Amino acid sequence: xxxxxxxxxxxxGRMDVRFGLEDYYGGLHCGECMDVQIKGKWIPTRIEMGxxxxxxxxxxxxxxxxxxxx
Length: 70
Fold this sequence. Notes:
Helix content is 0%, strand content 53%. It contains no helices and seven strands. It has a seven-stranded antiparallel beta sheet with strand order 3-2-1-7-4-5-6, with no helix packed on it. Strand 2 and strand 3 form a beta hairpin.
């Protein structure tokens, strides 16, 4: 599994994972699974789109900047 940070790609309108300066996952699609780190613990989740992007079971106002592994 690779660790990275969730970022928003305004060109594609999708969330993405940034692994390094020029290393990206390539855009996330609905239903893709990952783990997100919350308070030092890894929580399994998946990304979905409703009115906006959200992580199932994760309650936060902002996805950008969350540490994930995928």
